[in-house]
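User: ok so my PI wants both of these folded by tonight, can you help

Assistant: No problem, let's get them done. Here's the first:
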Amino acid sequence: MGDRNENRNRGEDRDRGEDRDRGEDRDRGEAHDPSRIRELRAHRGMTQAQLAAAAGVSRQLIAAVEAGVNTPSVEAALRLAQALDADVELLFGDRSGRRPQRSHGAVQLPARPEQGALVLAGCDPALQIAERMLAGAGAASILALHATTDAALTALGAGEVQAAVVHGPPGRLPRAPLPVSGVQLAGWQVGIGIAPALSARSLADCLQRGVPIVQRPPGAAGQQALERAAAALGLTLPGGMAVASHREAARAAAARGCAAVTTEGEARLAGLRFVALEPHTVQIWVAQRDRAHPGFQALAELLCGDAFAAAVGRLGGYELSGAGALI
């Protein structure tokens, strides 16, 4: 009788342990929908090993993420999104599928930004890192939407977002559409990423040899830098495809074996040779009425920290001295 009771108790313990394990797996999987990563990888025609190699992570991590039993670190999530040419929030957002939408080049907000987070728009990949590092902080968190500098400022002026990320040559940033407070984010180079198989070594080479250049929309600060550089050479930019982000431009150039206007970090991640055209300073502008928002205060503090510097530094091409300084 004692043996039977012991066996029954062990069986009950094992069942409870298995239920607990399954529950923990479900809980860990709730942070993202694993089918998004799996389906997008399959759509790109990539194996788990190929995705792991492209993102610089282990195949075991890919398998765990796709099984819904692991949520990757900030750095790994960003690299996976870059390897799959997808937004981080699309891959690792909650299961409701809420994500930013765009209409006619302007930012359109999700129906319900989570927990009163500070809503800001811009094109710097570091925003996605900051968003994930502040996740779960309630009103002290941020919701980062992708937009060109021009679209971000338009949204800020219209009251669609509370803050905008702007970049441009030092001392030549665009005009704010309303009174703002600011904080320094970074400095980086805008330039040309050139596929390594090409012999071109400069923008002049690309233009004179007819190398296709993946460009950005007219309101993008990177596109304006490209146009200034071509004008200074007395050369004409060719027509061609225009894409929404620095990352998309770099990846398109790598896939097509051509050139693109992009940032140094994105060019290097895509395996392109980078030629700098213009140094840019990057700032976050918040509407004066929202300068006391807990999300802005938390973001400014985060930018000063070692953890943010280490995470962004892995992307490459960032100058972070002065990050977090109020403007």
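One down. Here's the second:
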Amino acid sequence: MIGGRSRFVASVSVLAIAFCVGTAPASPAQDEAEQTRGWFIGSRPRTSGPARKAPTGRKPASRKPKAAAPAASGIGLGYTIFREVPGRSPVRVAPGTVFRASEAVRLLVETNRDGFLYIFVAENGADAVMIYPDARLSSGANFVAAHQPAEVPSSRHPAFQWFRFEGGAATEHIFVVFSTEKLPLVPVGEALVRYSGSSYRLWKPDSSAWEDIVAAAGVPRASFASQSTAETAMTAEEQTATARSMVLSGGAAEPAVVEANRASGSGLFVTRILLRHE
């Protein structure tokens, strides 16, 4: 159980991880993982700069998320989980970390395409609620430019800066949803502000929309995960990019996890993260 208005849990993701042992040649899985990392990082700009603004006049593609407009190229999504360290900058945690009660974390998410970001929490795999966009953050807006990092929750929010773990042991499902078009019938912006009201009510998807999201999470994709940067602090470039709506440069710190479908013609990409705390 998580403190605050939304529930959250800590993270483990079953991913392909590339290791080199001695002089043994890399396996095909290791090659694919490294290619995925290189493809994603290689799509970053050389230097950091202002992120593109949200387009105007966009319309939802259709009733079902899987029918989003075809993408011109594949979609990649990277994420890192940061843990709160009182009196210091947040530090990265390794994929597979099990958290303790009272610890607090936030996600840093980055995509290689312009589009719209949604994050859902399904407690014990059911009863999903949307925790991003949040009516309290940027008036419910959820557009992200390619390689513009998004903090969830945001360090800029005066009251909701961390997900804090409370209660007994639990495993939760976090669905990070990226779409090149707005998802139909999902309230964002002013519509989300109106829905949330003064009590900041969390929006819940209907069964049909949720089935599509879960199905998309099961689509095969290439994965890369790194343990090497665990316990390192959030960098100055990452902090500046999140605070000033800028994109990360090719030399910026890499996400702890990258998942991608480089051959996909779909405009929808869903990553499921299993999060655990004791």
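The CA atoms of residues 34 and 224 lie 7 Å apart. The first strand starts at residue 49 and ends at 50. Good luck tonight!
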